[in-house]
Amino acid sequence: MVRPYPTLVVIRGNSGSGKTTAAREVRRRYGRGCALIEQDHLRRIILREHDSGPDPVAPAFIATMARAALDGGYHVVLEGILWTGRYGPAVRELIAAHPGPAAAYFLDVSFDETVRRHLSRPEPIPVTADQMREWYHPLDLLGVPGERVVPEESTLDATVDLILHDSGLSAAGPLATCPDRCPRCAAGNR
């Protein structure tokens, strides 16, 4: 029997657009068998790489991690600003090379709203509105087939529901060892 391919979901948007919150909720609602790959964690924590430096490793590193998880049978939710000027080629190649279902979403939130949301975070990163303006790229689309723009009026629940259903992830069964073939999961020890 040929196993189906896992689903790749890419969630992008400017700082403070809600992409991390939405991505985490998509993964939480899906459960085991779905990997969450966060650009900020990989670039800032694991690599400690500045996003403005020359010869960045982060774009290829992030795409390689996503491919490894997909190859392992995990559905993947990849999230981040993933600015097309730096990450576009790696993300487009990841989507184009994936033989299974892939869906891309851009959370389109105005600059003023991104600042408001950023300041309302329990632990905002220490940046000013002027710094955020330097990073802000309105409607920075990848230009891949089927890419969806999610307007700022969309609530978290509506955004997560859209992503889960539109991408097909809500109907996609687990394909990774955990929980599909794992003895521990089979025993109810998820």
Automatic annotation (TrEMBL):
> Entry's InterPro entries?
P-loop_NTPase
Q: Which Gene3D superfamilies match?
A: P-loop containing nucleotide triphosphate hydrolases
Q: What Pfam families does the record point to?
A: AAA_33
Domain of life assignment: Bacteria
Name of the protein in question: Kinase
Specify the species.
Actinoplanes ianthinogenes
